[in-house]
Write a structure and sequence with these properties.
Keywords: Membrane, Transmembrane, Transmembrane helix. By secondary structure, the chain is mainly α. It is built from 2 helices and no strands.
Length: 59
């Protein structure tokens, strides 16, 4: 971000909060994606476990 502002010739001393906001937003997005996929994997894992239990009960 600072590189872009430098490239455009804008003084980024007042733009510093944008860097922090983008940093926090990026961390939020990354954690959201991890939680989303992690939650999905947990559900799949539980379904596989329950399917195995049902298979052993039917035998």
């Amino acid at each position: 971000m600072m590189f872009l502002l430098d490239f455009m010739g804008i003084s980024y001393s007042n733009w510093l909060w944008i860097d922090y906001a983008l940093f926090v937003f990026a961390i939020f997005i990354i954690l959201s994606v991890i939680f989303y996929f992690g939650h999905g994997f947990c559900i799949m894992f539980k379904q596989k476990k329950s399917a195995k239990k049902q298979n052993t009960k039917s035998n």
